[in-house]
Fold this protein.
Amino acid sequence: MRRFFLLVLLVPVLLLSSCVMSNVGAPTAAPFTPDPSGNVAVFTPDTGVTPDGNATVPADGTNSVVTPIDSWTDGTPAPTSQSGSGPLSGLVICVDAGHQETGLTEKEPCAPWGPEANSKVNNTTMKAKATSGTSGVSTKKTEYAVNLEIALKLRDALEAKGATVVMCRIDNSSSISNRERALMANEAKTVLTFNIHCNGSDNSSVSGVEIYVRGTGDNTSEYAERSKTDAALGQKLLDRIIAATGAKKRNVNKSDSYTGINWRDHTTFIVECGFMSNPEEDVLLSTPEYQDKFVSGIVKFVTDDYLNG
Ligand SMILES: [Zn+2]
């Protein structure tokens, strides 16, 4: 059983999409403009299977736009909250807890654009669908478990402010490729994704928070503008996190290397919350109080910088 993307004319969906977006109060990060030809990739779920990434890449290398779905392909409800009341009401935010317990060694294209747009990273660049990440030098905990702890706290905090939150996974046994997580966020008309990770280094003294945003992408001026905007927002996000946690401030990095950024049609931050290879920071990352501080920094960014910046 597989799921496929079909290329069809989809004017009604585009109209519907514009209606949905008009309700979202985000002032920045305009979504991708769909292919002007009207060709969009449509998600057609099968039943009885979880997402497995067996989708075709649009032959023309364009970014895909997919129709919203309201359930996983195995029939369970999608982990998307209803919009509540509060300053983030109407804002759709994706929280993606990086990695999962069981990696998927099968490969998928790292980016939607073709080699003519970017010779270094494109839709012939294949990367593993999912990996299990690093682990803690002190705690011996897995990164995917810590990522989920922080992600669930972030979900709760954003929902408390009224946001609609799309969770790419809510348990550690999920089996979802990085590209599918991205498409899930796109389908839900997400305007911001926080992709939660923890870091690792051969040097145990290295510590701190760093953020990744999109890079040169398909080399269009539109993409460059989005990269610039996302990097500026990323600096504000990093500042809020550092103010909340007191962690060492590292960099905001532009990169084309991440499937989870390249396939998303909206502002996406890979947040590397700290180093599990550092004995002290590893312990902190699993401490509920530190996780709460970390999450409060992210929420402050959304309410004070993203919405009102
Ligand atoms: Zn990671």
Q: What stands out?
A: The first helix runs from residue 11 to 22. The beta strands are 4-9, 39-44, 92-97, 104-109, 126-130, 164-167, 192-199, 209-214, 249-255, 267-275. The longest strand covers residues 267-275.
